[in-house]
Amino acid sequence: xxxxxxxxxxxxxxxxxxxxxxxxxxxxxxxxxxxxxxxxxxxxxxxxxxxxxxxxxxxxxxxxxxxxxxxxxxxxxxxxxxxxxxxxxxxxxxxxxxxxxxxxxxxxxxxxxxxxxxxxxxxxxxxxxxxxxxxxxxxxxxxxxxxxxxxxxxxxxxxxxxxxxxxxxxxxxxxxxxxxxxxxxxxxxxxxxxxxxxxxxxxxxxxxxxxx
Length: 212
What we know:
By secondary structure, the chain is mainly beta. It has one domain (2-205): Ribonuclease Z/Hydroxyacylglutathione hydrolase-like (Metallo-beta-lactamase, Chain A, 4-Layer Sandwich). It has three helices and 13 strands. The strands form two sheets. The chain has a seven-stranded mixed beta sheet with strand order 6-7-8-9-10-11-13, with helices on one face. A six-stranded mixed beta sheet has the order 5-4-3-2-1-12, with no helix packed on it.
């Protein structure tokens, strides 16, 4: 599996037989969204920094909760909220769980609350968790750690935080790294990982450099 981060919450996930793009953003956030191609495009919620559908040529666009099977890949969309008030402030959010050939990846979208027991159970066992950490519009560093502890993934990749160029009022990743007790040095992408590469014990935090 190959994971490429384009900044904010946008990722390209490349597996053996499928390419998935999640949450492409509008250039209004201060970053230039590249044109991409994918078998599947997922949209966690209809805000401009997550739903630039025009930037991605995709055969299938998923934007609602449900169970999907496309090209042999099982995907589950789980309903959640963009805030901690049952969506009263920012609406709903869809968590997407991708069951790839030998890894399970969870993209939390703009999650704004701690998971319920039911939500955590539906997410299930996760190898790689893509989690927002910048606060203000989503869970912050402390909230992200709480959710991570609920899911207990093998690898954590933070997203939706301030990097150079982003004009949104969100925090950078430093507080999150402190909360996780992890170095905050970005590594050049893409992240290439297989089941055999997962840590046998503990949890690995991977800070990616945004691809352009």
